[in-house]
Amino acid sequence: MIRTAAVVGGGAVARALLEALPRAGIAVRASWRRHSGLLPPPLREVDVVFLAVSDAAVADVCSILEVGPGQLVAHLAGALGLAPLAPARRRGARVGSLHPLRAFAPGGPGDFRGAAAGIAGSDASARRDLADLANRLGMHPLQTRDAARALYHAAAVLAAGAQVALFSEAVRAFRKATGAQEDEARAALLPLALGALGNLRHLPPAQALTGPAARGDLATIRAHRAALPVDLLPLYDQLTRVALRLGESAATVEDVKRLPGAAPRGPAPTTRSSSPRRPPPRGARPSASSRSPARYGPPRGPPPRGPAPRRPR
């Protein structure tokens, strides 16, 4: 049973742990920040040491910690396996990972409750203790494999950071359309975004999907493509492909591009009137006498009698 802990790190996740652990009945006996200018304190007297530092710092920080047999050393990095914790394992400690599937921002709330947590451990006892810790913090533990950690973390980033990046592009397009200030655009679009994501609590993505792709409305998609800034088109097209597939539409983005009036963005294509004309067949070519006077000038009267004068070379 884990009763005492130490928290190493000074970021948003470390601060959330310092608040949440006592509520879960776990006493925090030590905390240390890398940028404090001090060496970490001895940590042999605590049951678990949490490394709430950046991914790149996990191995270096682990190598300077004083830990020993029976202790549990766990990082909170999503993309890392257990290899960076090798220094602690050489000292006899059990090692593992507890990654909360929850976005923590500086100054934001630090509540773990309701989130899932990716769990990995060097042995069965480490996995059991980490699963128990996740439950006590109000999370649902999910076992992960080292070989799939990068893919697991990529999925988490698509669900969190990528959503924020996508929202920022929606704000940019909305401001261009309305002239609204950034905070006004966020306030206008946020209920829409939260409502769409909230539907996923009860519905699978295919049923929660809204918008023209869900309806197979290619004309509206074409209008969007014509109005969006050029640099947003690849992102819009890729998301539309996914949405059309979710909506089980037989249409594709390529079908949208082939709709009447859906000319490609950029320089206008060559029209029929501006394309070079092929010369008519020899028999259909006009004779010299049929050339237009307006183009070649008025006729000069009847040609002189006698042999035609030779043209100078």
Which key features would you list for this structure?
disordered C terminus; 2 domains; elongated; Rossmann fold; 313 residues; alpha/beta; 7 strands; 13 helices
How many angstroms does the end-to-end distance come to? 111 Å
Category by helix and strand content: alpha/beta
Order of helices and strands: EHEEHEHEEHEHHHHHHHHH
Parts with pLDDT < 50 across at least 5 consecutive residues = 266-313
CATH architecture of the largest domain: 3-Layer(aba) Sandwich
Helix content: 25-40%
Number of strands: 7
Query: What is the strand arrangement across the widest sheet?
Result: 2-1-3-4-5-6-7
The fraction of residues assigned to DSSP E strands is 5-15%
CATH superfamily of the largest domain: NAD(P)-binding Rossmann-like Domain
- Biggest sheet layout: 7 strands, mixed
Tally of distinct domains: 2
Q: Give the mean pLDDT.
A: 85
CATH topology of the largest domain: Rossmann fold
- Quickly count the helices: 13
Shape: elongated
CATH class of the largest domain: Alpha Beta
Rg calculated over all Cα atoms: 35 Å
Description of the molecule:
- The structure is a single chain.
- The chain has 313 residues and is α/β, with parallel strands linked by helices.
- It is built from 13 helices and 7 strands.
- The chain has 2 domains: 145 residues, Rossmann fold (3-Layer(aba) Sandwich); 97 residues.
- It has a 7-stranded mixed sheet with strand order 2-1-3-4-5-6-7.
- The termini are far apart.
- The C terminus is likely disordered.
